[in-house]
Write a structure and sequence with these properties.
about 300 residues; EC 4.1.3.4; single chain; 8-stranded parallel β-sheet; Hydroxymethylglutaryl-CoA lyase; HMGL; about 15% strand; PYR_CT
Length: about 300
């Protein structure tokens, strides 16, 4: 089971402290050393909206390459893709992740446009990115619920995905951590009616259901799960959204369930503790840093 490490992007974007580029590069290096092989490390967004990630190009120039590692960058529009394509090919990400928010109200607050307008942007960017040899993931954010309008129906998510066009992977995101395992199954069934691509999931543990949702997704055939070392992060545009499920805790759960991740849990926990200290956090959501691996 593949864990996608999103701490260097989704984790850092919600933290108050802005880390220097060298620390972000070291974060990626330590994550790779812990066994992670797919990492979302940059966001090509407006620096005034995401000052924590304003050095996207420099991070991508510095992260370690090779050893089967693939890097992902968040892209929100054509300008972001232009910045990627301006990089030397050896410094580009291997994939882009484009986010479309499931509800118009959240989409307006997050991206300044409606869901369908954002979807138009995805189709344009996805075509150009694939032509340039980049993998393309569409993430449907707030797929499990919206902080402003409430419940999101599975057929709403299905309609978005049906209109999206070509992609290499679809990620269903519980951006505010309201989902439960039954919804994972309902959404998976809904989107599989209209697309035949690998499914990935992104869970937050706001209401302590993130790990239950993750194991549900694993049993339903999702091929990848997002997590962040230490459980850092959240969504700066969603009220009260807490951190992602923690990489070290998720790796422990999956490894012990017979779903090998390739992640060395003690090394991952140590990296989670390290990034927490770099951010000046007194406590972390992750449990493995305190409880330890088993058997020890």
């Amino acid at each position: 089971m593949e864990i996608v490490e999103v701490g260097p992007r989704d984790g850092l974007q919600n933290e108050k402290r802005v880390l220097p580029t060298r620390t972000k590069v070291e974060y990626a290096r330590r994550a790779v050393a812990a066994g992670l092989r797919r990492l979302e490390v940059a966001a090509f967004a407006r620096p005034d909206r995401m000052p924590q990630l304003a050095d996207a190009e420099d991070v991508l120039r510095g992260v370690p390459r090779g050893a089967g590692v693939r890097y992902i960058a968040l892209v929100l529009n054509g300008r972001g893709l232009d910045r990627i394509l301006a990089l030397d090919p050896g410094h580009r990400p291997d994939e882009i992740n484009f986010v479309v928010v499931a509800t118009d109200e959240f989409a307006r607050r997050n991206q300044g446009m409606t869901t369908m307008a954002s979807l138009d942007g995805f189709r344009s960017v996805a075509g150009r990115a694939r032509a340039a040899g980049l993998g393309v993931t569409l993430t449907v954010a707030a797929a499990f619920g919206c902080p402003f309008t409430g419940e999101v129906r599975p057929d709403r998510v299905r309609e978005i995905v049906a209109d999206a066009g070509a992609m290499d992977e679809l990620c269903l995101a519980d951006t505010i951590g309201v989902g439960v395992p039954a919804q994972v199954g309902e959404l998976a069934a809904a989107v599989r009616e209209v697309v035949d691509v690998p499914l990935r999931a992104h869970f937050h543990n706001t209401r302590n259901t993130g790990y239950a949702n993750a194991i549900a997704a694993a049993t339903l055939g999702f091929v990848a799960l997002d997590a962040s070392l230490g459980g850092i992060g959240g969504c700066p545009f969603a009220p009260a959204a807490t951190g992602n499920i923690a990489t070290e805790d998720l790796a422990y759960l999956l490894n012990r369930s017979g779903l090998a991740t390739g992640v060395a849990v003690p090394h991952a926990a140590a990296t989670g503790a390290w990034i927490g200290a770099e951010l000046g956090l007194d406590t972390l959501p992750a449990q493995l840093g305190r409880a330890g691996d088993f058997p020890g």
